[in-house]
Specification:
Helices cover 45% and strands 14% of the residues. With 403 residues, the protein is α+β, with helices and mostly antiparallel strands. The protein binds flavin-adenine dinucleotide. The site of flavin-adenine dinucleotide has 20 residues, from strand 1, strand 3 and helix 12. Its cofactor is FAD.
């Protein structure tokens, strides 16, 4: 039976809370009540405004010790349990808090450095990830290396105690705002595909790095091409063994899948869908009609299941091992449910759903149209749905390997 939090406003998390978790829930609610002010709720300033808000929000979360609750306490986290993670996600979703600027580094790079980094690397990079002083982007994909990432061709040549990197990355989210990048580089071209790769951290201010934004279907330019020409990086910035970066990268990719499965976005989308449906409702049929109600109930059930799966998967990170193939289930289902909900919102809103922000009569001030367009990418980024299905088939169901 679901227990209700006793401190602060009541909320049903769908699980029984122990004393410590109740106190944690109250702490998170108190933090949100004071930190989430009008500035943080604003939607002005376009992409640059969002990034600035993300920086400030990250700073406030960190000041409250809430920037990375799933990280171990010794590295500035809270060693949060799955239930604490669930509580945190639920409160953040309900409050409609902005996205912290370093979400990807908190979800992916930090846990990777905790798992694979040297003590010096942990000391140098982790606190600045938490505070948002360093903003990171991920330089893995290349024009001919996406799903088949191990085909990457960016070269790293060792020259004394530095590596000289030349090549091209693509789809690098937030590279135009980041001051650091984590890269995969081929350092031993003679070794088998997955053996000669190194995982390297580079300062974006290094001579030889050029960023060119790519404009998307939404009109925004959230990702970029990154060109690297003779970029010199000290070997102390290699994470894990030299030439042995593939295993390190696999850890990052599994943390990334978990990160993509965090459910505050689908929780928020469910709320928006219900309020959209309610606007066409009548006292006899508050949500429009039975077919709409049926879709909403199904989405609600999926969101509830995913909330539990995602919280479990996130909390697994604190055990210091990267999540297993289960992370693919969480990523696959979350992105597909998210995409279906955005499509259903467009159906519900009708023509007003196609209007963009600022147009008179746009549904949810253009959010319906924006979400529909944004969600085209949900089943591609962090590994496509087909690739997640391959992983699930091979690793969990024992099916023959994809060739
Ligand atoms: C919004 C977004 C943000 C991103 N951000 C970053 C980032 O910050 N950093 C970064 O490095 N990358 C980023 N990416 C890149 C992302 O990781 C790749 O797009 C993804 O891995 C797919 O690679 P690809 O685009 O080259 O497609 P391809 O690998 O060329 O795939 C094309 C199609 O073929 C299918 N396919 C390929 N191989 C198989 C197979 N073996 N079995 C079945 N089907 C297959 C795919 O599922 C897909 O439908 C981002 C992508 C998106 C959409």
């Amino acid at each position: 039976m679901a227990a209700r939090a006793v401190d602060g406003p009541e909320r049903d998390y769908g699980v029984v809370l122990d004393e410590q978790t109740r106190a944690f829930a109250a702490e998170v609610r108190a933090f949100l009540a004071s930190a989430l002010d009008a500035d943080m709720r604003a939607r002005t300033g376009g992409e640059a405004g969002r990034v600035e808000r993300g920086r400030e929000w990250q700073r406030r979360l960190n000041a409250a010790g809430l920037a990375a609750i799933s990280w171990p306490t010794e590295y500035g986290g809270r060693s949060a349990t799955a239930v604490q993670q669930l509580v945190f996600n639920t409160e953040i979703a309900a409050a409609r808090a902005p996205e912290p600027v370093n979400r990807n580094a908190i979800n992916q790079l930090g846990p990777t450095i905790i798992q694979w980094g040297s003590p010096d690397q942990r000391e140098r990079y982790l606190p600045r990830i938490l505070s948002g002083e360093d903003v990171w982007c991920q330089g893995f994909s290349e024009p001919d290396a996406g799903s088949d990432l191990a085909s990457l061709r960016t070269r790293g040549v060792i020259d004394g105690d530095t590596m000289v990197i030349t090549g091209q990355k693509i789809w690098t989210s937030k590279a135009q705002y980041a001051n650091w990048i984590y890269l995969l580089v081929r350092t031993d071209p003679d070794a088998p595909k997955t053996r000669g790769i190194s995982y390297v951290l580079a300062d974006m201010a290094s001579p030889g790095i050029e960023v060119r934004p790519i404009r998307q279907i939404t009109g925004r330019a959230e990702f970029n091409e990154v060109f690297l020409t003779d970029v010199r990086v000290p070997l102390t910035q290699v994470v894990g063994p030299l030439h042995g970066g593939w295993r390190v990268a696999r850890s990052t990719l599994s943390y990334e899948r978990v990160g993509q499965s965090r459910t505050h976005r689908i929780e928020r989308r469910l709320r928006s869908l219900v309020s959209l449906a309610a606007r066409s409702g009548t006292p006899q049929a508050p949500l429009g009609d039975a077919a709409i109600e049926d879709r909403l109930v199904r989405f609600a059930a999926q969101v509830e299941a995913l909330r539990q799966i995602a919280a479990d998967a996130t909390a697994a990170g604190i055990r210091g091992v990267s999540p297993g193939p289960e992370a693919s289930i969480a990523k696959l289902l979350t992105s597909e449910v998210d995409q279906s909900m955005a499509t259903f919102a467009l159906e519900l809103a009708g023509p007003a759903g196609t209007l963009e922000r600022g147009s008179p009569g746009a549904a949810d001030d253009g959010d319906v149209a924006l979400a529909y367009l944004l969600m085209r990418a949900a089943t591609l980024g962090a590994g496509t749905s087909e690739i997640q299905r391959n992983i699930i088939g091979e690793k969990l169901l024992g099916l023959p390997r994809d060739v």
